[in-house]
Amino acid sequence: MGQDFSDASSRSSFDDDDDDPEAALNPHGDDDDDTDNVAPLRLRRLPPRGEQDASSAVLLPGDGTIMSVYMMMHRIRRLVIAAIDDIYTLDELRAPHMDRQVVRPLVDRLYNPQDPAIVYCLVANRVQFLRPRSSEALHQGVHESRAILCELVATRILRRFREDHPGRPGLLLLANILVSGFDPCDAAPESVRSRRPQWAIQKRGGHERKLTALELAIISESKMLIKSPACQLVVDAVYKGVVVYTPLSFVDFLPDHYKHHPVSLYEPRRAPILNHHRLIVPQIRNAIELLHFAILLLLYMLTVAHYGLGADMEGLRLYETLFNVFAAGWVLEQFAAVVEHGWEVHAQNLWSFLDLTFVAIYGAYGFVRAVELLLFDDAYYALPVLCTAAPVLLTRIAFTLMPDNIVFIALHAMMRDFTRLTFIAVWCFAGFVVGLLFLARTSGEDSLNAGVTWATITKWLLWIWFGLDGTGIERSADFHLILGPTLIITFAFLGNTLFLTILVAILTNTFSKIISNEAAEIQFRRAVLTFQGVKSDAIFSYPPPFNMAALMILLPIKFLVGPLAFHRINVAAIRALNAPVLLLIGLWERRRVWARRAKSSRFRYWRYFAGLSPHGDIQAVFSSEPPPEIVDALEKMDALHDLATVDRELAAHSPKDLRAPPASAVRRRRTSNSSSIRRFEV
Question: Quick check: keyword Membrane in the entry (predicted)?
Fold first, then answer.
């Protein structure tokens, strides 16, 4: 059953293939790409979703039904709205009675081993329930409970997929569930399709307007779903490059969508030695981006250091030119990364606010430097602006080297709350500056009117805010004998007492929430880093500053030649520029496979010395699976399908005074086959 299901699960990625099963491995058949990089899995052809009618379902062998994405989304919405009509928390929904009455019936009703779009439809409904709507403000709490229920049911269904389908076919299936693209308007009525936003969309061979379940989980911050073992198995496989696929994006700077590689398992021995697709593997991509940032930091240090010396003007111009060229390419790469998946996803990255700050500083430096070159000859008024980027760049190195550090994760969330609250405080406290300025102009002393400006008043208030100086309090009577001290003292109470107390309380609450859910936060950030690492735009295959040259040269060529010719030109240019890196990656991946084989052969002889350990006999017993006759004899004595096991989620919420777990906290094993409990490692 597991093999048939994994084959059926691939239909969303292989809809455009021919009837030949081998066409799934090479959709276009040209020889300028890696055509033998997937595991030899034969995939059963199923009818594409787009060819189904909205009012009917496609019946498959095994009495399974595939429903269109549009119908499934509305079906889930109706069921969830009917099941939840009050406010519930996650712990309450996990309680045994709620699990027995609400969660498990929904899981049993929605789970279809032939349909991989169920998780996508559940997460899409969660996104819709979490969307704030002013017309339904009174029901927002109920909508949040329904969103939690959608995530909980999606987590259970994904876990059931993993339990029913182990091994490599199961990994391929889970990957299709989480990273294959689905069209929410699949088989929708024409009236719905006509209401879709009609902005310009780049053609991607029928894969336009598609989203993945993992992207929706990141947008809706479905941390319970992302931290589940099934999701982490796929995330880890995508991060290491075991699972490869063509990512979906909205807009590309340098689009090359002649080929669309479906979700597949990578085989280094069958891939070409210069496989340019390995440049978008998140693990490799992060190392390349770290190298690019290290070069940027080195050029920045050389430029600022020569500016500080002040004598070597020729060296300063040389390093400044190199820095400007490389930094412009790096900024283009960051801007393309924001456009790739949108700011909402990019903002989940830990160092996104640092990159945005550096881009702002570099833009200000570039503007001032351009004015200098136009009006002056040897002036360097812009370089002091560039010096202010040092704290940002050095801090960004720490964030990049330790992306899984819980302190940096908490700092990222706290910085967002701090920025929002500081903006509100500055906006509100600006009224005190205006009030004191008008008060000085109307009823202040003549000496005060002559020497006090809005900048002076702002400085006095800032010193009071930070507790550095009391000049503003001493001069408050000069504004007005009564109203001046009243405004200044009121500001001191609101700024030093109320604002700081609220700020500390909010940041403490944010930090405590993150620490209490540390594992989920780390896994969520890892999923974000993995999802952002897989790039669709060809511009990312060109290192800075060659990406600017590629944009200026190859983009006009795209409008002059056909898709196949442009694809071959693009691939040839990428392989030529990245030949040393691609060769190193290919040799390293092959050596890793050979080393694993050699290690297994060495341990084959080493196991004979296991008896030297006092525990060697115990290790020998459990080192391999028992023979089939032993398994059959054990199955006759104890049938696994009749054995009940306690669910950890529900057992944690069971009453403490019960000696046995309640019936709702127990689930039956859905298989008695020993293959269902075999271990699988990526």
Answer: yes
Among candidate residues 481, 498, 530, the one where a domain is terminated: 530
Residue 457 has which token pair?
């008043």
Angle ∠(153,159,161) on CA atoms, nearest 5: 105
- Asked whether residue 425 is domain-assigned, the answer is yes
Q: At what angle do helices 390-401 and 282-309 cross, to 10 degrees?
A: 150
Angle between helices 454-466 and 483-492 (to 10 degrees): 50
Q: pTM of this prediction?
A: 0.74
**Helix, strand, coil proportions of the chain in percent (round to 5)?**
65, 5, 30
Decide: 76 and 125 in contact? Cβ < 8 Å: yes
Q: What is the pLDDT of residue 460?
A: 85
For 304, the enclosing helix (H) or strand (E) is: helix 282-309
**CA 48 vs CA 4, 16, 264, 460, 648: distances in Å:** 17, 8, 18, 69, 38
Q: Are 34 and 143 in contact (CB under 8 A)?
A: no
- Kindly state the DSSP code that residue 585 receives in the 8-state scheme: H
Q: What are phi and psi of 645, to 5 degrees?
A: -125, 145
| Contact yes or no for 473/464 (Cβ under 8 A) | yes
pLDDT at 594: 64
Q: How far apart are alpha carbons 643 and 637 in whole angstroms?
A: 12
CA-to-CA distance for 356 and 352, rounded, in angstroms?
6
Confirm whether 255 is domain-assigned.
no
- pLDDT tens per residue across span 28-54: 334 444 443 444 333 333 344 444 443
Residue 205 and residue 260: Cα distance in Å, rounded? 8
Single out the residue in 513, 530, 547 at which a domain terminates: 530
Burial 462-501 (b: 16+ CB within 10 A, else e): eebbeeeeeebbebbebbbeeebeebbeebbebbeeebee
- Tell me 139's DSSP state: G
81 neighbors 125 (Cβ within 8 angstroms): no
* Position 666 pLDDT exceeds 70: no
Instruction: Report CA-CA distances (Å) from 545 to 300, 328, 329, 332, 536.
Output: 15, 7, 4, 9, 19
State residue 264 phi and psi, 5-degree precision: -150, 170
CA–CA separation, 473 and 465 (whole Å): 12
Q: Residue 321 contacts by C-beta under 8 Å, 6 or more apart in sequence?
A: none
Q: Which two tokens stand for residue 574?
A: 């990428």
C-alpha span between 389 and 391 (Å, rounded): 6
CA distances from 583 to 287, 575, 577, 579, 588 (A): 15, 10, 12, 6, 8
Q: Give yes or no for a contact between 322 and 299, defined as CB atoms under 8 angstroms apart.
A: yes
For position 679, what pLDDT does the model report?
Answer: 35
Q: Tell me if 500 sits within 8 A of 464, measured CB to CB.
A: no
Distance CA 429, CA 491 (A): 8
Q: State pLDDT tens for residues 213-244.
A: 998 999 888 999 999 999 999 999 999 889 98
Residue 107 lies in a domain: yes
Given a cut of 50, whether residue 673 has pLDDT beyond it is no
Residue 205's pLDDT is 58
Type of residue found at 216: L
Other C-beta atoms lying within 10 Å of the C-beta of residue 312: 13
The number of domains in the chain is 2
Side chain identity at 264, as an amino acid letter? S
Q: Which residue, chain included where needed, has tokens 């009675």?
A: 97
Query: Domain residues for 461?
Result: 408-530
Contact at 8 Å (CB) between 154 and 222? yes
In a domain, 75, yes or no: yes
Burial of 618 (0-12, 13-18, 19+ CB in 10 A): exposed
Give the range among 284-288, 463-467, 611-615, 626-630 with minimum mean pLDDT: 611-615
Question: CA 80, 650, 675 angle in degrees (round to 5)?
Answer: 95
